Amino acid sequence: MEERGDAVPTGAAAPPRNRGERPLTLKSPKLMEARRAAGILRSALRGHTGDLTLADASAKSGLPLRDAESGLHLLVSEHRGHLKATSEGELLFRFPYGFTKPWETRTRLTRALQAVLRVAAGVARFVVRAWIAIVLIAYVVIFVGILIAQLFARSSSDSRNHDGVPGSFAGYFLFRLVLDAIFWTFHPFSPFVWTSEPAWSSSHGHRGALGRRRDETPFYEKVNRFFFGPTPEPRDPLEAEKLILAEIRAQRGRIGLADVMRVTGLSRDEADPRMARLMLDYDGTVDVSEEGGIVYRFEAIRRTAAEAPARAPAPVWAKREELPPLTGNGPGMNALIVALNGFNLLMSLYALGAHLTLDNLGLLAQGVPMAELPATGTAVALGVVPLVFSLALFALPLGRALLRPLKQRRLARRNGRRAVLRAILSRVGARQGREPITEAVLQRAWQEAAGEPPRSEEITREVVALGGDVDLEAGEGIRYRFPDLETEAKALEAEREAASEEEARAGKVIFSSDA
Question: pLDDT tens for residues 309-358?
């Protein structure tokens, strides 16, 4: 394969993809602080054993080679790591103690201070996450106490028995009994946490008679899930870089935009500038074939101390995106939360109608019957606040339920676009005998993935975004061609066949600091 261009030096402009396009001006790379890079590496390499090259660490962490190098050297000095040099001039890094420091000893004062800080941080996190459940249960307890106080205030004149036990004492005892029952039922640290979910499950090793697992989700977390939905899994900000680097290593250091789109789902307009940045971060170069196929070459990232060949990541369409459940709770738990919030809503309306101000609440606690309380003032603490709180809590899941069809359609379109991408990339550059890329093929792929037929403009939009043209020489029906992707596939095939396996070898060890 002949080359029209070679390496793109730092700060130079990447070659335009088509004639007439504006060249992309690359900015000088920005160096990451070594300690920050070391923190990212420490997290990405946790559990790794054995030697690793700079390229290994860069691929696992998603860091540029320059940042991975500075972070690795800092980790070697902090965690007493070892270095090895190979005959190819490659450095191998090893951390025999992992990222621990067993040689350090901590004083009792330091351990005690760290324990106090951990407890304080845990309490702060709990208060932030559990305040809704705390307020919900607190109002339930307060309103139950008011009902009990009314009951015994109404019969206070007849509540004394022959043993001389006053009715107010009996009411106080009953109130404490209800309060303790609710506390030990719902507080997150109780060993008797109530749950409507199955107690055991076959997914765990320990099974009961029904073969179900115990649900260990705290009550406050279930309350949060009911109103705000299940907590989404955290996303790795470097996930796309890691996938691209894994694809580079699996494809002999030569990839094209189609490979980037395949593993990340990025559009062509998003993948092009990202590859320009990755060339700066990972010492990449660009080759252009006679037909104009662009190949991105990354030889440095191939170096590895592992013996097994690199595995290619799964394509982005391998996992269908699904809409998360509305609450993630079982029907029994949802019914309980609705009942508790509904009880507070009704009691707040009752408190407003009965003028249960704090002053009147004090009179009620002294045994004054409900009918004799002065009908003045507005119940703010027991009326307005819980009313607004309960209405807002009911509005949250209702609003999320109304928005679910919109989110479902958005996910369906995303799954449909990925299916179209699969149908195109699996046929571009394929051998003779494969099914051509027709409008019917793309529409069928979209409908199978999205569950609904696409609009004609949606297919056209995806084809144009991937550089497709209508094949005017085709027979009946609309057929598409993708010249840029086809020339890219041919150039990649030739480049990968010519790639040397020596690029991936770290070389023979000629020096080791632990020898």
Answer: 889 999 999 989 999 999 989 898 899 889 988 988 998 998 898 888 88
The whole-angstrom separation of Cα 351 and Cα 378 is 9
The predicted pLDDT at position 203 comes to 38
Say what the pLDDT of residue 368 is.
77
How many domains in the chain? 2
How far is the C-alpha of 326 from the C-alpha of 334, rounded, in Å? 11
- Write out pLDDT tens, residues 456-499: 789 989 998 888 888 766 666 788 889 889 999 999 999 999 99
Tell me the CATH number at 429.
1.10.10
Residue 78 lies in a domain: yes
The residue count of the chain comes to 515
When comparing pLDDT for 476 and 91, which is higher?
91
230, 394, 220, 182: CA torsion to nearest 10: -150
Query: Domain range for residue 471?
Result: 411-504
Listed residues 76, 94, 112: the one ending a domain? 94
Distance (Å) of CA 146 to CA 94, 142, 150, 365: 67, 6, 6, 8
The answer to whether residues 377 and 360 touch, using CB atoms and an 8 Å cutoff, is yes
Q: How far apart are CA 344 and CA 182, in angstroms?
A: 15
70: β partners: none
Comparing C-alpha atoms, which of 484, 499, 222 is closest to residue 338?
222
Rounded Cα distance between 382 and 373, Å, is 16
For residue 82, list its beta bridge partners.
94
Task: Give the domain-ending residue among 73, 94, 115.
Answer: 94
| Sign of the C-alpha dihedral computed for residues 136, 140, 146 and 150 taken in this order | positive
Q: Does 292 fall in a domain?
A: no
Mean pLDDT lowest for which of 103-112, 130-139, 156-165?
156-165
Q: Which of 14-23, 122-131, 496-505 has the lowest mean pLDDT?
A: 14-23
Phi, psi of 401 (to 5 degrees): -65, -35
Distance (Å, whole) CA 290 – CA 288:
7
